[in-house]
# Entry
Amino acid sequence: MASNSEARAGIYGDTFLAGLWRENPVLRLLLGMCPTLAVTAAVKPAFTMGCCVIFVLVCSNIIVSLMRNLLKPHLRILMFTLTISTFVTIADLFLKAYVPRMSEMLGPYVPLIIVNCIIICRAEACASKNGLAVSVIDAIGMGVGFTLTLCVLAGVRELLATGAIFEIQILALQKEGGWFVAWAAMGMPVGAFLTLGLMLGLVNIISKGRT
Amino acid sequence: MHTLNILIMGFISIVIVNNLVFTKFLGICPYLGVSGRIDMAFGMGMAVTFVVTLSGTLTWLIDHLILMPYGLEVTRYVCFILVIAGAVQLVEMYIRRFFPSLYDSFGIFLPLITTNCAILGLCLFINLYGIDNLVEAVVLSFGAGIGFTMAICIMAGIRETLDMADVPACLKGAPITLITAGLLALAFMGFAGMIRIG
Amino acid sequence: MGKVKHFFEQSWLLIVASFCFGLLIAVTNAALSERIEQNRINKRNNLAKGLLPDANNFVPLDVAVEVMSIMGKKELAEIYEATSEDVRVGWIFNAAGSGFQGKIELVVAADADFKELAGFDCIASNETPGIGDLIKEDDFRKQFEGAPAEKLKLVSSGEPTKIDSEIVAISGATVSSGAVVEIIGHYLVQVKQQLQAKGLIEDGK
# Structure
């Protein structure tokens, strides 16, 4: 009995950690690129986006996992999209009501969570095959992995573009008498593509060093 | 004359100046996945153009004829994604039934298109720009598809040559593609602000 | 009959789920819509208050005023009368148009007689950070405070501190500054004319 629950705890822990690094959705599976690039000009919107994705991912995984035995194969994708879009609408309403500033900054990228491949991929690959507990833990692991990646990327970009992180000035800007010249390009599309490209390269080096 | 002017400007604007891939980051996933070979990229681009024109038009109609008059804007996202999923299914069935050869060449891309952000993104942007006539919505949707095709073909062309280049081992594959895309985005920024829509 | 039965067998889950999800959205919307609307009003009022510090109340104009947008489409203008203890201290109106990247939405304030601008503020914009974004900064906005309420002109060089109808562009962000000048001028002239025509403010001549 004890070994059984221990083994189960091991599976849960493993599922959770997989999302953080080994199967990190952005860095390893290359999923959900659009929001990764679009909302990472600053940490705050990136973090908000990550939270929304966690919420939608957990909710949709719960629903999909609960009705996995009732799903008809050819209506499966339709059910997934229906579930996901419902929760995205709810997340959008909550953002508008409680953090209107973030809602404006994220704009159309909130509804675009619907077509974020991570969510539909987890529904298909995990929730429709596994029980409730594994699905939820998988969703949280993936969601946290996504959020962390987004925040790191946004941190680098925000620091270089404005000399601040979380809107707190860290590097003294030159126009205010400091030494740091802000790289405006980092806040633009170019910065997003370049930073993510270099980040993926770095991840490749690290993972190669390990094996 | 004035209307025609707006249409032409809108078209050029969405194809070049406000290209969905380079300025709005939409449709990056297939952009990275499929853009390995130029003929595949073109097939994908055409399939997207077709679906985006259809669903852009349909969502505009639904938005203006059903959702707005009855104050159902809150269900907009759900309706949009269902329309897109439906349009993709319809297109797939239609092509398989009547153009089997066409189906063979780009049928495999069709299921992928449902989760292509460029399509839902465009439907949302049409709504955001406040486009209020049907012709303009159709032209913009079509332009978005062309813009996507252009971006993905340029990328595929570069990647075909890139295969022969000596890229550092750790940057091979996706990283160098992203960096290339970054430089392309920089080039497209030169167009920014030339034509303004809204 | 068999066909109908088959249809329901296949899709009952979809139908039930759509119904439940619809209900869920409706409930959330009912619970939150008031707050969302209030957020919008608060935001505009806060911006407006920054422009007209004397005002403590913003009353929507009760007559419909139609204006042409920059793209030549008819739309209803959002105009508010700013009052302080029931005395009019100024006007607030919304203006929108496209900037360097996407839409710029502005709230513009003018004095009680619509002779001078009291300034503008950004409701929403998507300008390049560090360049076009500077339209939100005081250095640029100060030029509009006290500028005559007429068609404004963008100049590339001049003295920004001099208050007149010439607005000095932010260097490197001519498109963004130009867009602001164009949007404000475009709406300003129309709103002024309409208000004069409706007898709400005196005709300048």
Remarks:
- Chain B touches chain C through 15 residues (CB under 8 Å).
